[in-house]
Design a protein that fits this description.
17 helices, single chain, six-stranded antiparallel beta sheet, 3 domains
């Protein structure tokens, strides 16, 4: 249950804290005092949408925080859960659950299991067809638990086998498609006949081709300078030194060293001359190099960053082909196991369908009885159970949808298509009344569920809210004295002007104040007659 609600800077709410209690909490008060803003705040903390126009004028952010006591909830600390959401003018959200930051979607998913809000335009679970099966199965209770548990265990095993078959290419078409792809890749790589180091050699050759003219010109110049200038000059220097080498040993040594240079230079000249022959390329060779490099680049885009990685990928692919080919026998065993599980699931699904079909009619009848008491005598709920022939769901093979006819002679339609907010709220109240003992959502919030009703219907709404509050915390905004009179806790919402600004105030009423508020609601003023009527209504609650 919610123990404390703290709201700051939302509309005319400046800063209020409300301590709530188990049972039926009824909020009444002046029109425009901020009652709806309190419900809006609960929607915000439940992950609902927020408009920055809701931020109080002159402020930069809004803040909503609740403390809940849920001792069995795994997220609670000593039974307490603190949830907060801060929204800034720039649209930035900061959501926290027990101090841990979460996204808005995570907040919504978490709160969806704890709070249900039913207002003029907000009955989220009632409008969610996925929740309808939970409603029906909750109503059925123990009669279907055993089948559901066995089916769930089989379904998990069934899904695990399906996934393993998928991973093992157990589907013949998928398996063949994968083999064809892998074999194509192997063929493409092997036909390329790649060699490690080949790309570097081709790149070097292409570079030479692109610079052939410049290389040839400079080689020619170097050849001339070496062979015609340098060699002849050194030869003449050698002959000069030979004439004096007998005079001093150092001249002889210099002559010898120069001769070595002469021989090395001759060898270098031959090499430079031969380099010129390397620069002879034809167009066909040039085109072949470009095509070869394009092929290598194409394979690198598909299979690896280097030729070595491509060749390694090829070896890995060969092993995968061998692995897939050897899986067929194992997959055959898996498919046989899957078939046996499907047979068991089918049997359990049929049993659950039978149970659900029988109880769907009972549930429809009970809800319709509640609708009659809520002055919706022409409304008819029809809980439809549709059997899905070719599909296994996590919950069986049934699709559950609540349909309704609100007026005689009209075609029934899905519950989410109800136009009237008042009808929607009363329909949810009828459903909640029937499912009160099995519904696991601990906190129910009703916003002006009494819109458009009075008299006998008002008494019925009040009694059903009281019955639901025996097993849930109920927070209800109301304008009806009948509902205010049966509340366990009454809160008065008012607005006051302080320093030229309007702000909301909330007060938990004492018993005398409760009587006066019931009198005010019933007649618009507090007098002897209205107080007497208020006491009578309050005494009915006590009885």
């Amino acid at each position: 249950m919610i123990t404390t609600l703290h709201i700051k800077n939302i509309g005319i709410i400046e800063d209020i804290t409300i301590d709530l209690n188990q049972g039926l909490n009824v909020l009444t008060g002046e029109t425009g005092a901020g009652k709806t803003l309190i419900i809006d705040s609960l929607q915000i903390i439940s992950g609902g949408r927020f408009s920055k126009e809701m931020i109080r004028k002159g402020q930069t952010h809004s803040f909503v925080e609740i403390c809940m006591y849920e001792p069995k909830n795994p997220n609670s600390i000593d039974g307490n859960i603190i949830v907060s959401r801060e929204i800034n003018l720039n649209g930035k959200n900061m959501c926290k659950i027990n101090g841990r930051m979460v996204t808005v979607n995570e907040l919504k998913e978490f709160m969806n299991n704890l709070i249900e809000i039913h207002g003029q335009n907000d009955n989220q679970n009632l409008l969610n067809n996925k929740m309808h099966l939970n409603y029906l199965d909750g109503f059925i209770g123990e009669k279907i638990i055993d089948q559901k548990q066995k089916y769930t265990e089989l379904y998990e095993e069934y899904c695990a086998i399906k996934q393993e078959l998928k991973n093992n290419f157990g589907d013949e078409k998928e398996r063949q498609r994968k083999l064809d792809l892998l074999q194509y890749q192997i063929k493409e790589i092997e036909q390329a006949n790649l060699k490690i180091g080949e790309e570097e050699q081709l790149e070097e050759k292409r570079k030479k081709i692109e610079n052939a003219e410049n290389i040839t010109q400079n080689l020619q110049e170097a050849d001339v300078l070496i062979s015609e200038n340098a060699i002849d000059s050194i030869s003449m220097a050698i002959r000069a030194l030979e004439k004096i080498e007998t005079i001093d040993q150092k001249y002889e040594k210099a002559s010898g060293e120069l001769k070595n240079i002469y021989y090395e230079l001759q060898e270098l000249s031959r090499d430079v001359n031969s380099y010129k022959g390397d620069m002879e390329f034809d167009e066909e060779e040039k085109d072949w190099i470009e095509e070869r490099l394009d092929l290598i680049y194409s394979l690198k885009r598909k299979y690896g960053n280097t030729i070595q990685e491509i060749l390694q990928y090829n070896e890995t692919t060969k092993k995968e082909v061998e692995h897939i080919a050897n899986l067929e026998e194992y997959n055959k065993e898996l498919r046989q196991k899957q078939k046996k599980i499907e047979e068991k699931m089918q049997l359990l699904a049929n049993q659950m369908h039978e149970i659900r079909s029988q109880n769907a009619q009972i549930l429809s009848d009970r809800i319709n009885l509640e609708l009659v008491q809520l002055e919706m005598k022409n409304a008819k709920i029809n809980v439809k159970v549709t059997y899905l022939e070719n599909e296994y769901l996590k919950t069986g093979k049934d699709n559950i949808t609540f349909y309704i006819t609100t007026n005689k002679g009209e075609e029934e339609k899905e519950l989410s298509k109800i136009a009237s907010g008042g009808e929607m709220s009363r329909t949810m109240l009828a459903i909640k009344k029937v499912l009160a003992d099995t519904d696991k959502t601990p906190i129910l919030i009703f916003d002006e569920i009494d819109t458009g009703i009075s008299g006998k219907a008002a008494n019925s709404v009040a009694s059903k809210l009281k019955a639901i509050a025996n097993t849930h915390q109920v927070i209800c905004i109301s304008h009806l004295p009948n509902i205010a009179a049966i509340a366990d806790y009454n809160y008065f919402i008012s607005k006051n002007v302080y320093q030229e600004r309007t702000k909301t105030q909330v007060k938990l009423l004492q018993e005398k104040e409760v009587i006066e508020e019931i009198a005010r609601i019933s007649s618009g003023e507090i007098n002897e007659i209205s107080l007497k009527y208020a006491n009578e209504l309050r005494n009915k609650k006590a009885s």
